[in-house]
Amino acid sequence: MSTATFVMAATSTEVRNMILAFVGGLIIAGGLVWAFWFGMRVRDRELPRPLPDEQPHLPDGGAVRESREMREPDEVPLSADGQRLLPHELHQSSSRTKEDQQRRRWMPGSSGSFGSGGLGMR
């Protein structure tokens, strides 16, 4: 084999690789164009955006304010026959309003985080 044969063989694989890369790029670009076209068709079939007068408005009394209340966990009731209760047999809320509505405050000397809240010395 001569050097010219090796050059031709190397050139043919490079050309083939370039053609494959170009065809692959065309396929990817075609897929992106199709996805864009398909998305626009889906968007055209959707309902139109609401007009400004169809948007929600504040109530006549103004903005609704947040209410705070202290809650306490509700005990899970037991069934009459001792079987476990299923979710549809329970009531909706898992907590109830606490009788004492005073917020618990931090007490000096107790960290409330880890352990007993002592000084941290052994």
Describe this protein's structure.
The structure is a single chain. It is elongated and about 100 Å long. It contains 1 helix and 2 strands, in the order αββ. The mean pLDDT is 79. It is mainly alpha-helical and 122 residues long. A two-stranded antiparallel sheet has the order 1-2. It starts with a helix and ends in a 25-residue tail after the last strand.
Overall shape: elongated
Which strand order do you get reading across the main beta sheet?
1-2
**Structural class estimated from helices and strands:** mainly alpha
> Level of helix content?
25-40%
Low-confidence stretches: none
Q: Strand-and-helix sequence, N→C? A: HEE
Overall average pLDDT: 79
Our count of helices gives 1
Largest sheet: 2 strands, antiparallel
Structure summary, number of beta strands:
2
**How far is it from the N-terminal to the C-terminal residue, by CA?**
87 Å
Structure, briefly:
35% of the residues lie in helices and 5% in strands. The protein has one helix at residues 3-45; strands at residues 71-73, 95-97. The mean pLDDT is 79.
Give the secondary structure arrangement, pairings included.
Elements: H1 3-45, E1 71-73, E2 95-97
Antiparallel strand pairs: 1-2
